[in-house]
What does this fold into?
Amino acid sequence: MTTLAVQRNGRAATSDELAPLAFAGFAHFTAMQVRGGKVRGLDLHLGRLRSASMELFGRALPDERVRSYLRAALEEGPADVSLTATMYSSPGEFTAGEKPGEPEVLVRTGTPASGPQGPLRLATVQYDRYLPALKHVGEVAKTHLMRRVVQDGFDDAAFVDRRGRLSEATIWNLAFWGGDAVVWPEAEMLPGTTMGIVRSATGPPRRPPTRPAGHPRRRAGPCWRRGHELLDAGGRGPPDRRDPRPRSPTLPGPAAPGLQGRTLHRFLGPGVLAGPDSLRPTT
It folds into this structure.
């Protein structure tokens, strides 16, 4: 991704300001796609930054100030960008005596990106994130595990917690269609912004099915589940029950209302997602 702008607290960041951050790992962030100066679920992004700042630093910036920093990073650039907002505190990591000051905000914009053209072939990996509800930096394990499963022929990794429950993928949430409702994993995870938008449109979460007694655990393979049958990206069952003929990728089980012909990790359309929020002043 080509970097278009890097700003600290609403102005261009200098090399002296950026140098300490190259070695800092006590921070959190949110990442979004900006289209036409607008962001889907902006309130969820702001809420994520606010709650994570309270957890890590004991204080948070007002939402409107954060919005002003995001706007400033977009003023001179194109209307369509990828944007990452990182919040950190001046004492940095490996310090305990100095009280964290007011959080600083580093905003970076780059060329726009889109999600993968699914379905994806996933390998399940046992991994529990520390502070899973926070989108914090320095997660070397996620990149390491992603690269390892790609080397094994998969597209990405889906995580299973120490109790054997699916939680999330490397940088996106897992969702399942149970025939009449969206089913979310019960394990601790990072609540994604798209997850929040889908939840607001589909109602309260449904409890996922339990693994039946005697059903073997799978260390690698698909992450979709229909009833008690594990499914791969094409909606097929375990290897010994698969039809060897190739099949067209489909969403497993009955199609979800409003999600016809689409998978949940992709853009779901204006009928499902809440309206975008503007980061640019309206004229």
